[in-house]
Amino acid sequence: MSDEVDQETIDRDKLLLDLMIHAYDEDVARNELVDNKNCQMIVLTGVMLTLQATFFTELLVNSVLLKDVICYDGKLILSFLMLGSMVLYIVSLFIFINAYAFQETFGSSPDPEELLDKAVNNHPINKVQGNVLYDFNETINYNFNIIEDKIRKGQIGFIVLKVAGLSTLLFLLIFILYLI
Questions:
Q1: Three-state secondary structure call for residue 67
Q2: 3-class state of residue 49 by DSSP
Q3: Nearest in space to 100 (alpha carbons), one of 111, 88, 92
Q4: CB neighbours (10 Å) of residue 39?
């Protein structure tokens, strides 16, 4: 009867381990997706910042056609909007890079050295499975927190990016009004 109970425990632990491995694999895929999204936002923000810095600077500073069209106060307002939106783009870029960068290593489990040590020392399979289950649970929770932190930072970066975009839009609207 004891062998049946031990086998049931081993089978149960194996099923739990299989489920945890599946959850871990899903976290790895989710982490890659979040990193890809943050990477795309880094590229988008960099492009927006580059376009704004070159195009709008050309319009405000170097354009011979506009020197007489826009008054000093208008140039001051437009310059403020341009610099403000550029600062916002830089802040959002920094936030996205921070969300993408690996500040903490994504956890992995089980530890191969620990498993090898337990195999060499003939630890009972049910104790090994129990330890692996515990380690997997800790790793999954740890990785979940890393992913949630990256998502939160990405959301903040996106909010700042939207405000920067609105500032750019306001710049364009005021610029067009001065031309009319």
A1: coil
A2: helix
A3: 92
A4: 14
